[in-house]
Amino acid sequence: MAPVTIRTATPADHDAVIALTARLADFPRPAWRTAHEIAVADHAVLRAAVAAPGADTVVLVAGAPEPVDGVVFVSTKTDYFTGERHAHVEVLAVAPEAQGRGVARALMAAAESWARARGDAFITLNVFDANRRARGIYARLGYLPETVHYRRALMPDGASGAVATAAQTATTGLTIRPDTLGDSDALWAILHDVIAAGDTYAFPSDLTRDDALAAWHPTGGHTFVAEREGRLVGTYLLKANQPGLGSHVANCGYMVAPAARGQGLGETLCRHSLDQARALGFTAMQFNSVVSTNVGAIALWQRCGFSIVGTVPLAFRHAREGLVDIHVMHRLL
Known about the structure:
alpha+beta, single chain
C-alpha cells in the first residue's frame, strides 16, 4: 500500500475539503437531524479554519498536492472536569474512492502528532451513536467511549404527552413497502378521499380510478404504501422532479387516509421517503406545489428539513378558499 502524504490545508484546498464533507451525514441519523443542517455546520467551521488558521486549530489533508483524499479538522477544547486543554477532532472525512487505503488512520495519526507536539495529554471527538462505521474506525484506533449525549424534545406545557402519543402511534405496527397490484382498491380509496377534497392536490376532483392510479404510478416512479393491521393507511410517490439534467432532484407526494390523520404518519412517510431518495442516488428533494393554506403540512415539511424557496401567487384554485398561493419547498439530501 502506497504511503499517505499528509499536509496542512491551504485556501486552495477549500472546494475539495468542502466536497469531502458530503459523507459526514451518510449514516442513519436521528429523526431530528437532517443531512442539510449537518453539512451547514461542518461547512461553516471548515471554511473558517481553512481561510484563517489559528494557533489553536489545524486542518490537515491527505494528498500531495491533489487529489485531496481526506481531511481532518482539529480544534482546542477544555476538559469539563479538570480544565485541561486538549485537542478535539471536529471533522474527519475520507473520499469514497480512497477508502481502504489507510487514509483515515494516517489523518488521525497526524492529528495526534499535532496535539502531542503542543503538549496535550489526550485527544477527544464526538460521534453519532448510529454512525457505526465511524465508531468502528475510532475503536480500532484505540479511542474509548466516555459520556453519552441524550436529547429529549420539549413541547409546550400540556402538549408533550399528545405529541409523544402521536409519534408512537405513527410507527406502532406500521409497515412501509412498495405497493402491489393487490393494493389497488385500498390505494384508490385513499387517493379518492384526498383528491375529492380539492384542498391539497391539483388533480381534478372527478378524476377516475384508472386515471388516478396511473398518475400515482408514472414511468420511473416508486410508489410506497403504509400498512397497519392489514389496512392501508397512507401512501407516497417518489420520482425525479425533472427528466434529464434535472433528474438528480427528487419529487414526492404523500397521502394519508382520513382515519389515520393526526397521528404523525405524514412525518413518518416523509422521513422514509428521504431515506429512499438517498438510496436511489438523489441529491435533493423538491416539492413544487405546497398549498399555502395547508399550514400543517408546511410545518411538517419544515420539521423534516425543507425550506420555502419560492411562492407562486394565486396558483391554486382551492375548493373552499378560492385562489390561493402555492409554495416551492426544497432541501438537500
